[in-house]
Amino acid sequence: MSELVTGEAVALELRPARLPSRALAVLLDLLAAMAVYVAVTIVLVTSTASLDEAAQTALSIASFVLVLVGGPIAVETLSHGRSLGKMACGLRVVRDDGGPIRFRHALVRGLIGVIEILMTFGIVACIASFVSARGRRLGDVFAGTLVVRERIPVTRTGFVPPPPPWLAGRFSGLDLSAVPDGLWLAVRQYLTRMQQLDPQVGWSMAERLASDLAERTGAPVPQGVPPAAYLAAVVQERQAREARRAFGSDSAPAAASAAAPATSGPAGTGKPPAVGETPVGPARLVGAPEVVAEPSGGERRPAESPGVPAGERPGTGFVPPA
């Protein structure tokens, strides 16, 4: 990978094209240009048969320059660095800062390409590509361009591998509140890219992250647990807690306990009201008279409503025995 820095100070990781793919792209471009040149030459010969030899020679030279030199320049300018051969090989010409090329870049590459590709049969271009660290020929060096690969193997980025099944739920009691976001980000980046690291480097990095994480949680790494598996298990535990918090699973018991007194007996008992007990809270029917106890006996009577005469009080529906 080649790291390019844009004008906004953004680092771009691009994969430079190597000599085999570039040679194949140039060969395809030359075949297409030669086919067009042959077709144009046939048309010129048939249409200028009445002209003298000097005029025919001038037209032949002009057609050669326009097709084999001007054609690639125009194609790279209009397609922003993607000729027919480069499109077939998945390549593109970009500037040193990663941006698309313009006419001046294509013009310099095309003019120098006549010397190092057409006149020397590609020998100079091959030598320059071998010497350059990023595989650039002389035209790329003078134009300030780079040929990169557009089609690269697809890798699974951003995927955190799951921990071994025997570690599932083992760290449910860890206190993760003291772990900073920077450490979580470092652990996540390591887990997503550990397959691309050297085994020895990856193991040492996992040990360092695991020790930092154990120091923040206050619990050491269990014996016999690989550091990478420990990191994956802790990350999975954090994701599970965030999912429960986001979907409100933890609030269900609280809601159930808050709603329990509405249908239960005395507070904290969870039993239906016994005979002689007053229902608590919303369990009493709305509009029903409140029942209070007499100070002197066990007989209970309806409570007096303020401002209502005794004769106009609503009946309770109780009929005394005869």
TrEMBL record:
Keyword Magnesium among record annotations: no
Keyword annotations of the record: Membrane, Transmembrane, Transmembrane helix
RDD domain location: 17-144
Record keyword Transmembrane helix present: yes
Protein topology in the membrane: Multi-pass membrane protein
Region (Disordered), start-end ranges: 242-322
One GO CC annotation: membrane
Transmembrane segments: 23-45, 57-78, 111-131
Superkingdom: Bacteria
InterPro entries according to UniProt: RDD (IPR010432)
Pfam families documented for this protein: RDD (PF06271)
Location(s) in or outside the cell: Membrane
Compositionally biased tracts (Low complexity): 248-274
UniProt protein name: Putative RDD family membrane protein YckC
Originating species: Streptomyces paradoxus
